[in-house]
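Cross-check.
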Amino acid sequence: MKRIVSLFFVFATLSLQAQSVTLEFKPVKGVEYPVSMEVSQATTIRVPMMGEMTTQSDQIISAVVTLEREVEQGYLVEARLTRMTITASGQGQSQVFDSEGEDVMGQAIKTMMGKPLQMIISRKGEIVEQMPVEDTFFTQADETLATQYARRRRETAMQQIKSMFSQNAIKSVVQAGLTKFPDRALAIPSVWTDEENSEELGAIITVQQRLTELSGNRATLTAKSVIMPDPVAKKSDAVQRMERISGNGEATTVVDAQSGWVIESSGSQSLSGDLVVEQGGQSQTMAVTMEIKTKITSAR
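Predicted model, tokenized:
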């Protein structure tokens, strides 16, 4: 009996070792791939002579990605935003930008929903190219603002909208539904590391992914990230910018093993750095800490 039990565990172990999977992004024509990203961020700034000031921001951004055609680099896809809600509060004040809101700003943001944004995604789950938007991309939003806003206020509002729909902002939403996979078959467990230089943050982001489980069509991954300042990063010339960002994070993600699209994910990050503000030829540096929590689902 002991021998039979021992053999059972040997065969079970060998079976687990033999289990492997090749994960990649494989969209199907005619299928919609939805993604909803919720981000909660608490930012604390240490202001000289005033102490600490904390602001809270919350975002819910949703999109649908569809395949246009297969190309040499991977897949040409269209992403259409379906919802954008951003709230910010601090020091007794609050601000809301909501595509479902009835105010003029909300109505202007609503005109941006459903507009096609094209990009190329590699089979390994990386956005390798974003197509430029047409000159008329923001026209409808601008016309909506013009119905109630005077010129100066309208220009300020348009700057805010263009920031919300920047290339980096759109990329982050679509990337939330993707995972960067290695170019090899993965046993269970498997570990791989990806390193990225972020020009926006002026930092090097190193992510270690671990495939921990494969159950049916669901692959479970855990990730740990380390963010360090990039010593050779090009210094931003913006009058207000973040410098010397560092920190770490972790996440757990469930991926559809057939399509490579994220089913669900949750994670957190702790970051610190310096906020540099230049005004009137003078520069002020303030210490900043950020606590960020994210939740991603493929539900509509």
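Confidence is low (pLDDT under 50) at residues 1-17. DSSP finds five helices and 14 strands in the chain. Passed to J.P. for a second look.
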